[in-house]
Design goal:
The protein is an alpha/beta fold. The chain has 17 helices and nine strands. The chain is elongated, with a radius of gyration of 26 Å.
């Protein structure tokens, strides 16, 4: 019986940029040299990496693939407007605190009964209160979970541009010193700094202070040759000629004035749909029937449908 293949140690994948490109390819991520170089520096310099680009170009997938390649747990924090410290860092288990207070009510009453005066009773009560704001009652959220991983992890702060500027400022301590301050517990410092990815769709401009703490990587829409490799890797069942044709058609769509030009993720989805439909070539009718896979707005579909034959010939 053939023994299972053994994945090379993570250190082997980080020995050079070329090794990192090969390693990412082994887990299904086709990285350009610029992407691999930025990732190589982020790992070895222990710097967060801010990944920008339009939706669907592979920003989040880069973090997922890196965690897979390095054999590290992935901790993901999805940002949104109104996200605050309690949802990102920690909060107290209020229900558990209330339950324990009810259970221990009699014990607390007896402990306070012989207090000589109000000041003494308050001192005793304060000591009891500290117990309810200790580790057993703490609910760690993604940022604290990441800092507490003994062997490190990949921390994905997804769509950071959707969060408020106040939350962006809160992140600065985590990104600069890999630590957070909890008033009741003190400063929590990471034993092993996490590999941090921040992604942005450029919904708003990020502050200079945040950018200074990060390496910057912009992932553009790929050229045809790279996109063909990505499709071939992600959709093994698609034929080479069909891959070339569908990528060429998608590339031509990106030259049009569309509300949402198709990204890499739409190209991959379209390839999967064509395999499902047992297509071996692109015909005008087939393209029209499946435009909704690569175009996400009806106005774009309406604009493209009359041009399908011309775009196929241009291909």
């Amino acid at each position: 019986m053939t023994p299972p293949a053994v994945k090379p140690p993570a250190a082997d994948h980080l020995s050079s940029v070329d090794a990192l490109i090969e390693g990412l390819s082994s887990v299904g991520y086709i990285a350009s040299r610029r992407i691999a170089t930025a990732l190589y520096m982020a790992v070895n310099l222990q710097k967060p990496i801010l990944v920008e680009g339009s939706a669907g170009v592979g920003k989040t997938e880069l973090a997922l693939s890196t965690a897979n390649l390095l054999g590290l747990p992935l901790i993901r924090m999805q940002c949104y407007e109104g996200l605050d410290e309690s949802k990102a860092l920690y909060e107290w288990k209020y229900g558990k605190q209330l339950l324990y207070t009810q259970i221990l009510k009699d014990r607390m009453g007896s402990a306070l009964a012989d207090a000589p005066d109000m000041d003494a009773a308050m001192v005793r009560l304060h000591g009891m209160g500290d117990l309810f704001f200790s580790e057993p009652f703490l609910e760690p959220r993604p940022l604290m979970q990441a800092l507490r991983q003994d062997d490190g992890c990949v921390l994905l702060i997804d769509e950071v541009d959707k969060s408020d500027e106040a939350f962006e400022a809160f992140l600065l301590e985590v990104l600069s010193a890999y630590q957070v301050s909890v008033p009741e517990l003190g400063v929590i410092v990471a034993k092993t700094p996490p590999l941090v990815f921040l992604t942005s769709n450029n919904v708003r401009d990020l502050g200079d202070a945040l950018k200074r703490r990060c390496l910057h990587l912009h992932i553009p829409l790929p050229e045809a040759a790279l996109e063909e490799r990505i499709v071939a890797t992600r959709v093994p069942g698609v034929e080479a000629k069909l891959t070339k044709d569908l990528v060429a058609f998608v590339q031509s769509l990106r030259t049009l004035d569309l509300r949402k030009p198709p990204s890499i993720s739409e190209t991959v989805d379209w390839a999967r749909a064509l395999v499902l439909l047992h297509a071996d070539s692109l015909s005008p009718d087939l393209v029209r029937d499946t435009l909704n896979v690569i175009l996400k707005f009806e106005q774009d579909i309406v604009a493209v449908e009359p041009q399908v034959v011309e775009l196929l010939h241009r291909r």
